[in-house]
Amino acid sequence: MKHLLKLSDLSESDFSEILDLADKLKYERKNGISHKLLQDKTLGMIFRKSSTRTRVSFEVGIHELGGQGLFLSSNDLQIGRGEDAADTVRVLSRYLDGIMIRTFDQQEVEDMAKFGTIPIINGLTDYAHPCQVLADLMTIREYKKDLKGKKMTFIGDGNNMANSLIVGGIKCGMEVAIACPDEYKPDADIIKWAEANGKFTCTPDIMKASDGADVLYTDVWASMGQEGEAAKRRVAFEGYQINSKVYGAANEGAMVLHCLPAHKGEEITADVFEAHANEIFDEAENRLHAQKAVMVLLMK
Ligand code: CP
Ligand code: NVA
To answer: What is the SS3 string spanning 36-56?
Structure first.
């Protein structure tokens, strides 16, 4: 593994290596055992979109590993004025030991990996959110012990989260169901791959998708960059919500996860969110541990 661009690039053993190391780093952190595995390394963190969790967990993570993080807003970089990714990364490769980038177009992340000489980590694109799903899988493993054979149902927009959950879930042996309106399906190639490689369904029927689920997952109806479509999407996604009725269709003790930020009253009700707050905030915490594992494996 040289980069983390999207989960389809990872092998089954990459997943176990990352998740096992994440568990170990979490244990060490909780027990005051220092692990300065990236002493004096610098991670550049390029953001073309807002972030709370990704920014803070990467910055704290690299610090705890003995290195430092540089927050690079695209508003202040020449990349925000049109300098291309290929040139930017050829320059930054001379200064940095790794780059985390959050942007719109997946191609920009792929170009960084192609033209640069240092590891590139996708911190979210319109297509994928691999760091989030690694933390999600880590959290499901903590609560359910094993991923294999567990059913994960995603309700809502077939967006970056849905795309990455399908790939990550299936590669780890989970059954994945997506409930979304027909016009908002996940990436067509990912659907095709999932149908050929695992137990997968995509349906507009929320109750059918949620039946027998071990994990219910949702995300906002309008992602970053889609703010102008918010009103139209509120109509299209009406009912695509995790609420107590939908939860009732899932298996007893089913987890509820959300990548956050949440719009309570839209994709999830406040009562279901609060009833599962421990799981959701453990999931957010696990961003830190999972990304530390990714950085160690890529940058050491
Ligand atoms: N879940 C997630 O990536 O959160 P941020 O947008 O706050 O980084
Ligand atoms: N789908 C959301 C995820 C945020 C973490 C977005 O792209 O805005």
So the answer is: CCCCCCEEEEEECCCCCHHHH
Q: Is 284 in the pocket of ligand 2 (CB under 6 A)?
A: no
Q: What confidence tens digit (pLDDT) does each residue in 200-215 have?
A: 999 999 999 999 999 9
Whole-model pTM: value is 0.98
Residues 101-111 have pLDDT tens digits of 999 999 999 99
Cβ of 167 closer than 6 Å to ligand 2, yes or no, is: no
Which parts of the chain sit beneath pLDDT 70? none
- Name residues whose C-beta falls within 8 Å of residue 200's C-beta, 6 or more positions apart in sequence: 166, 170, 175, 176, 177, 191, 194
Is 129 among the residues known to form the active site? Answer: yes
* Residue closest by Cα to atom 2 of ligand 2: 223
Ligand 1 atom closest to 55 (CA) = 8
**Structural domains in the chain?**
7-129+286-299 (3.40.50.1370), 132-283 (3.40.50.1370)
Q: How far is the CA of 258 from the centre of ligand 2 (A)?
A: 10
